[in-house]
Write a structure and sequence with these properties.
The chain has two domains: about 35 residues, no CATH class; about 45 residues. Helices cover about 45% and strands about 0% of the residues. The chain has three helices and no strands. The longest helix is centred in the C-terminal third of the chain and has 20 residues. α2 crosses α3. The N and C termini lie far apart (about 60 Å). The protein is mainly α.
């Protein structure tokens, strides 16, 4: 006879820290039937961001701000776009 595993009820948590603490010391298989799990897509998740410090000449920052103003975007966003474009360009170049 096959033993059916009893699924425990997941407790309510006061905050994310309490929940994190709970899951760090409990096995999820006692609380979730992973055989019934289905894949989900979470298209609206943003990648984790980390602040960095970079020294740029003031004239470069001013030129960037002018370009950003013309496009009606924050200059930091435009800088991220420029960096992302250059990374893609370099990756494509290195695969040739």
């Amino acid at each position: 006879m096959v033993e059916v595993k009893q699924i425990k009820k997941i407790p309510k948590f006061e905050n994310e820290d309490k929940e994190r603490e709970f899951w760090s010391s409990h096995d999820s298989t006692g609380y979730v039937d992973w055989c019934k799990a289905k894949r989900v897509k979470l298209p609206n998740l943003r990648p984790t961001m980390r602040a960095i410090s970079i020294r740029l000449p003031e004239s470069m920052i001013e030129r960037l701000k002018v370009l950003a103003h013309k496009r009606d975007v924050p200059y930091q966003s435009l800088l991220k776009l420029f960096i992302a474009d250059k990374i893609i360009e370099e990756e494509l170049r290195s695969t040739r």
